[in-house]
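hey m, so remember when u said the tokens were messed up on ur end? i reran from scratch. heres the input so u can diff it against urs
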Amino acid sequence: MNRLSLAHLPVAPAVDPRSLSVGVVHLGLGAFHRAHQAVVTERAAALTGDTRWGISGVSQRSATVREQLAPQDGLYGVLERGNGDPTIQVIGSIREVLTAPEDPEAVVARIADPAVSVVTLTVTEKGYRAKNGHLDLDDPEIQGDLTGRPPRTVVGQLAAALARRDEPLTIVSCDNLVANGPFLRQLVAEYFDALGKVPDVFEASRFPASMVDRIVPATTDADRDEAARLLGVRDEAVVVAEPFLQWVIEDDFAGPRPAWEQGGAVLTHDVAPWEQAKLRILNATHSMLAYLGALRGYETIAEAVRDEELAALAQTLITDDVIPTLTPPDGLDLPSYGATVLDRFANPALKHRTAQVAMDGSVKLPVRLLGTVQDRLTAGAEPTTLALAVAAWMVYVHTAPTLDDPQAPRLTAALSGATTPAAIVDNLLAVDTIFPPALATSTPFRDLLITHVAALTNR
């Protein structure tokens, strides 16, 4: 079977990819970006006829994505799996793939290119190399970048490129972090402070906050076979997604940008209510179902949410613990949003693996769960179901044969010799890179955790 390419193109993209010039750099060229920002960017170009916004995608780790996309002229399919038959659309907005470990200088040069005015990021929480709310200046890779080598970290890449630019840049974080744009700006500022020199262009650049939402499970061989059946050609870069897509962006840009609102994004002056609702309802519930589901032997989130007991716990988490801490954004009914989230999780066609959602828990917990725990404790409430979600993470960490987490060595060391629920809880609460002092010393929270850990380990 032929490979998807410009020469073998059974379904044309919405915009001729040969007409696009690069105006956007994206750091973190994984499946989520290809199923989300790249789709919205292409839709905007199709509706406006503006061809300045082709994407230069940067893989921060391996050459796998380049090896998938290069033989296909940057083309790939988005396989949507909803309640009906699957559908597929071909996307052509990614015009270049760079691999940072192979050529870090090329990444900096592309971001510094005057034709580029926007950078977007999906590098996951750990890609920011932060510790206790600040840039981790003890991180070996950050230290290496500060010596002046071609940078290997996203903060180093952005700082090096800004130092070369005459025109300001708009840098849009799309990761699940509270106030992600301002937080990234702070990290870059701390990097410049460590260098001892802040370029003038940094002050004029903008770091708008944003919130993204779309379930994008890992692609399987069965998905590639399905794409081949639908397209009539082989697509090694296909990504899978649900029909739902949401992107909310703070309307604060330093210069030209894609007309993302034409492609379905929402521009607003205040992202925070949208962000909090998504992090605390969708992401927190996702994590709880991942840990509880994995402990019960469920392979996918859909299997976990079809467990009546786990579904009831997820509903209780949303209604009793989370919604009381939120201020709803205009036009969003929080109980209805919560119900929609659970319906989306139950989509059996997505096969979003519990192990995939469970990874990197040490960086996900603080933004998805622990802030809500603190808010409920401050309000004098007992966050029973929230504590269950955190306890499920603790038991998962204690029992997982292998732990995919940036702090895996520290977590493993902390649990060495911990044989009782109290020891598991106390040893993990003492990990100060996860639990702030107010939670680590909270007796009500500790008591709830011990009760839940005991119940989960007994079961």
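this time it looks ok to me. The longest strand covers residues 22-27. if urs says something different then somethings off w ur setup not the seq
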